[in-house]
Amino acid sequence: MTKARTSRRRKSAPPQIEPRAPFILRKLSSFNVLSDAGLEQIEANADTILAQTGMEFQDDPEILQIFADAGCDVDGTRVRFAPGFCRKTITATAPSRFTQHARNPANNVQLGGDSTVLCPAWGPPFVHDLDRGRRYASYQDFTDLVKLHHTLPWLHHSGGVVCEPVDLPANKRHLDMLYTHIRHSDRAFMGAFIGAERAGHAIDMARIVFGEAFVAENPVLYCVSNTNAPLVMDSHMSGALKTYARAGQPVACTPWVLTGAMSPATVAGTLAQVLAETMAAMTLTQLVNPGAPCLMGSFASTMSMKSGAPTFGTPEAGLMVLAAGQLARRLGVPLHTVGTLSASKLPDAQSQQEAAWGLMMSMFAGANLINHATGWLEGGLVTSFEKTIVDHDLCGKIGRFFDGIDMSENAQAMDAIATTGPGQHFLGSEHTQANFMSALFRPWTPDDNSFEQWHAAGEKDAAQRANGIWKEQLAAYKDPGLDPEIDAALQDYIAARKAEKPDQDYF
Amino acid sequence: MTKARTSRRRKSAPPQIEPRAPFILRKLSSFNVLSDAGLEQIEANADTILAQTGMEFQDDPEILQIFADAGCDVDGTRVRFAPGFCRKTITATAPSRFTQHARNPANNVQLGGDSTVLCPAWGPPFVHDLDRGRRYASYQDFTDLVKLHHTLPWLHHSGGVVCEPVDLPANKRHLDMLYTHIRHSDRAFMGAFIGAERAGHAIDMARIVFGEAFVAENPVLYCVSNTNAPLVMDSHMSGALKTYARAGQPVACTPWVLTGAMSPATVAGTLAQVLAETMAAMTLTQLVNPGAPCLMGSFASTMSMKSGAPTFGTPEAGLMVLAAGQLARRLGVPLHTVGTLSASKLPDAQSQQEAAWGLMMSMFAGANLINHATGWLEGGLVTSFEKTIVDHDLCGKIGRFFDGIDMSENAQAMDAIATTGPGQHFLGSEHTQANFMSALFRPWTPDDNSFEQWHAAGEKDAAQRANGIWKEQLAAYKDPGLDPEIDAALQDYIAARKAEKPDQDYF
Predict the structure, then answer these.
(1) Angle, CA B390 vertex, CA B387 and CA B392 arms, to 5°
(2) ipTM field
(3) What does the alpha-carbon distance between residue A44 and residue A254 come to, in Å, rounded to a whole number?
(4) What is the pLDDT of residue B48?
(5) Which of B487, B405, B399 is CA-nearest to residue B24?
(6) DSSP string covering A45-102, please?
(7) Rg (alpha carbons) of chain B, rounded to whole number
């Protein structure tokens, strides 16, 4: 049956039908959950938080000086901002859209406006697949995931830490990860997020790939900078943020909160805090380098009020990302957010109810980059190979959905209706024959066959079918190639950096 | 562990926290996928279809006479409608909203406006649960499902053929099904859909329950009348439609189409055909009894262009239901549509990706009644006990989502943010303590615990947990009681109808 499946899926895989879109261009609107009055209240509350409570910037005296020079109220490590200051600073210089370049220009992604870029899971120290179960992630897994993602047409970005290769020294593995993205994929990728030094390495490596002059003028990396909610930014994050901003590379300023733990237990309270934190961080990017691309980030989910465990795919998470989209549009900056999150341990019914909820809400929010659009399990502790495939179907579906409704004369099909007539079927009609390859989107994993056919094929559930698909995809991976001179220069650079200090198994 | 689960779930079940809402009152807007120009084009195309191709009404001469008397062009069994005639007839008298009464008035449902009523699966001849597998449905299953649904707070309606009790004679089982809804639930329920005689039985039984005078003035039943796409209505459906409409009982006029088979392979073509069919059927309800409640129904999904199998949770199905919502609002009638459809054979990742897609799209469409909001598998051949529970979580989530964002002073939580301050947590804050029971929605099935806790609890997937939950719910079912005189009268009525003719195993 594996052979039969392969053949069915390959025939239905869209690369044979249409060219891969480098990102989604949404032709439908966004969905609004707050009135203008509600949004103004959230904005006023964020201003109040920034003015009265302010934000802590720890272990980074340079940042305190930058804020002081800009006229902010700096009291020890606490910075307070006059009402309106952050908004004015951001809207004065932050671009509303920009292009992140890939080494293959066909894979460049637009960030801002009506575009959405879907990225794989980021950060999990574990991986899971049905054959090998749950285990610590290795560099081999990292490489396999980068290659697998590269074969997936409805993902747009190679991502960053697609899993943590814990068999590599913690203080050097960012070099191997960056190399793997560059070597095995020609899509856009993310930089290293932790600390100024590693961010500098990412920029150095990007200069080797793209050339120094190009990198000086164009975004080629992408940094997610998390605040430590509530209202703290530490030097690991601020160091990377400064480094990328100075190099003109985009920074997604992303408070990560679980309501009730790191923010109030309510949506409106959390939104004000998230807006305050992201505005403070975006303000920093603009003070460091006016005009450097930055994104409003929002990664707000909920927690179990019984156990304190993080929960995902919840009504409140949906409301928060939709409101964040409205707030980002009013600020005139792109929105970075998150996708198919789940607390489930398996690619099961829970994981997909939560995943579909999360990705759909982020799309309706008009998100411009959706991190964790595939593979995330266990609240981010695990990247699942099978869930990557199942989530990827959803990525394709939502992209096609946001193409909207074709109102061409062909699509209106008035002749087909008139000539088919009552009680007849359209299966063999000329119109159906002419449109059947492109009219309807075809995901890879679903089994739409009869019970009897499904039974004969071994009664596989979706995860088991996805297990076959990711292996076929990985086997079909095609090396995009890399200029040998660039490859050698990267390897030399990495060897030199690794030689500078001993391995460490901690950050 | 079962005991632990039970206790956890019972504590988190919302009936202990807040009264059950009899239906969802949406505080958020609907999502539009077509411009006014696009909608006008679809409407013009529907008018063209009705005027030029027309619709077949088979084996029901009375209907042909009704249309002829109204000035329509009747040619054999083909009826053609002047452009604008159907819209004018519907908008002149069809109510934009109405109440369907339940025998417990607390369970009355509003149909129209901003309300949404969620109903269980309808029609499956098979049932599935993890203990007994897939099997033909029995009357015992039917009864168990009615009781189970009655315990579910986020469902609003007892439904109709929650499964086909195939161990009962096909020509009499509608009597048993109606009795079971009335006896074991005090929520609103649906009538029998097939043929005038059975529709009459449903109305007779409703009169026994509610009283003849009340039924004459108030909707107490609900009929789904499917067209046979393309552009045919047979006498089974028209007979029931006429009977309910004459009794002032609501009819959801619902074309059921798979694009490419029963309509063109394109969204725009399918929409025009669906609108034509539903308008012709709604027109019939208004000619039979002006002012009788009717709903625009839309059940448009897709098919595999390779195998011809029905497919669900697709981008095109989403676009069609959202456009149908816009078309219904322009007609000024409530929208009836469908929910958690899936072609999957199991309550697995496929089933929930498709289910979440379908229910969320119908909610964003502003649907007023969503049939099949729980339990549907295998393209409607199966009601799954476990999927009922998993889908029910989604029903609760989407209901809470459409409550929108609480902007009260308490929810803004400005004091909590000010007093907690940077780097502290909100877990023990006064605000969190005051809000934690109600602030965040809690579904029943998800496992949000750590891997280690989940492992210790037996590594159950969502379906396995749902298996425990439906059994606990069924065990906890509370008989709502029924006036013994009404019960006896119903039983007498049923016995008399059954005695009138021999059993038949076919319709």
Answers:
(1) 105
(2) 0.95
(3) 20
(4) 98
(5) B399
(6) HHHHIIIII-EEETT-HHHHHHHHHTT-EEETTEEE--TTHHHHHHHHH--SEEEE--
(7) 23
Quote the distance between the C-alpha of residue B25 and its chain's center.
Answer: 16
Residue pair A42/A324 in contact (Cβ under 8 Å)? The answer is no
Scored b (16 or more CB within 10 A) or e, B309-331 reads bbbbbbbbbbbbbbbbbbbbbbb
Integer Cα distance of B129 and B388 in angstroms: 10
- Selected for mutation to probe chain A from B414, B433, B444, B445 (highest A CB count within 10 Å) is B414
Phi, psi for A75 (deg, rounded to 5): -130, 95
Q: Nearest C-alpha of chain B: how many angstroms from A89?
A: 23
In chain A, residues with a C-beta closer than 8 Å to the C-beta of B267 are 405-406, 411
Instruction: Write the CB contacts of B131 (distance below 8 Å, at least 6 apart in sequence).
Output: B467
Q: How far apart are CA A319 and CA A332, in angstroms?
A: 20
DSSP for A14-53? GGGTSPPPSSEE--S-----S-HHHHHHHHHHHHHIIIII
CB A347 within 8 A of CB A354: no
Q: Would you give the end-to-end CA distance of chain B in angstroms?
A: 47
Its sign, for the CA torsion B282, B283, B285, B291, is: positive
Strands B97-100, B109-112: parallel, antiparallel or unpaired by DSSP?
antiparallel
Taking CA–CA distances from B27, the nearest residue in chain A reads A33
CA atoms within 13 A on the CB side of A442: 24
Distance CA B72, CA B74 (A): 6
Q: Is pLDDT of A206 > 80? A: yes
Tokens 């699966």 sit at which residue? B121
Beta-bridge partners for A233: A57
Decide: A34 and B405 in contact? Cβ < 8 Å: yes
Instruction: Enter the tokens of residue A380.
Output: 């981010």
The rounded distance, in Å, linking the Cα atoms of B491 and B412 is: 56
Note the pLDDT tens digit of each residue in B202-215.
999 999 999 999 99
> Of A220, A145, A241, A177, nearest to A490 (Cα)?
A177
Q: What are the tokens at B450? A: 């750590």
A10: pLDDT strictly greater than 50: no
User: Whose structure tokens read 């293959």?
Assistant: A104
DSSP type of residue B20: P
Cα–Cα distance measured from residue A436 to residue A438, given in angstroms and rounded to the nearest whole number? 6
DSSP of B462-494, one letter per residue? HHHHHHHHHHHHHHT-------HHHHHHHHHHH
Which residue is listed with tokens 């509608």?
A: B174
Peptide bond connecting A230 to the previous residue in cis, omega within 30 degrees of 0: yes
CA A290 from centroid of its chain's CA atoms: 25
Contacts of A259 in chain B (CB under 8 A): 439-440
User: Token pair of A341, please?
Assistant: 């999150």
In Å, how far is A429's CA from the nearest CA of chain B? 9
Q: What residues have CB less than 8 Å from A153, skipping those under 6 apart?
A: A13, A14, A15, A20, A396
Task: Name the residue facing A421 among B53, B263, B466 (closest C-beta).
Answer: B53
Mean pLDDT of all residues belonging to chain A: 94
Give the pLDDT confidence score for residue A307 in this predicted structure: 85
Instruction: Summarize pLDDT for B277-298 with one digit per residue, the tens.
Output: 999 999 999 999 999 999 999 9
To test the contact with chain A by mutation, choose from B352, B385, B415, B424 the residue with the greatest count of A C-beta atoms within 10 A, namely B352
Q: Residue A124: is its pLDDT beyond 90? A: yes
Q: Say how far residue B287 (Cα) sits from the centre of its chain.
A: 26
Would you state the structure tokens that stand for residue A170, as one six-digit string? 């913690």
Residue A274 contacts residue B406 (beta carbons within 8 Å):
no
The answer to whether the Cα torsion of B384, B388, B394, B399 is positive or negative is positive
CB A31 within 8 A of CB A318: no
